[in-house]
Target: Alpha-tocopherol transfer protein
Amino acid sequence: IDIILFSTIVPAPVTPIHRGHRDSQRIIRNAESPRVLAVYCLMVGNAHSRMLKSSMSSNKILSLNECRKPSMKMLAAFGLDTSPLSAETCALAERELRETPEQVQKSLAELRRLLEEKNTLTYKDTDEYLTIFLRPTHFYAESAYNLMKRLATFKEKNEKIVANPLPREEKKLFTENSVVNVLVDRDQKNRRVLILNMGSAWDPKSLNSEQLFKVLYLIQIASLVEEETQVRGAVIIIDFHGLSTKQVMAMSPSFAMTLLLYIQEAMPLRMKEVHIVRQPFLFNLGCPMF
Model:
């Protein structure tokens, strides 16, 4: 796997709005001019390694238009990885999440006890399903139960959007829009990378804000099938290139509140980093909502 740096010159610095760890990499670098190069980190298959090495050895930075050429597209279709955790990821889970065989069994038993005693939530009680909620809460059963309760409350309040949506019924939201994309390869820390094109690529008439949230919700559910992603987490890159008033008006305060409430309070996925790139001046009008 090779990493390409997709870059474009922007008038103002681009900074991450959230960091999962202190050692996480920045996605900006200073140019010799006063302007800043926003570096867009994407992954490509080994089939392009020769092209990339040639480009990098000549110190040439690929433009976004060059990177959009068919020759630079992914050669493989995206697929979920259902393989068991690697030894390296198991060690990471033990270090960051307190995930040891003994702690796992203890936390599962305690979480089942809480669900049975309180008897107010209906969830699957398989080890695999309960572990989805124990991992982001570092295997503290009480915290996992509270996360499950917040998720149930969120789904009840937003039933219109997330009332058990089925991917096959929402197929057009994925196939007829290029707003949300999941990279085939993971990043250098083996995290899933989601690209969210919130600028000119987003037409709110064909994909309104509620539908956009539903797409993100379904992708998040799918990612939780992957144990590797449960432990490693995910990174989001939000690209505001070509943002106009059309997109700003579609990002209503209610949409922003719903999205942030879910991410901060009810999402079982470990969100490691969120990066904003190529935001124009118009972005400042919508930024306060977030």
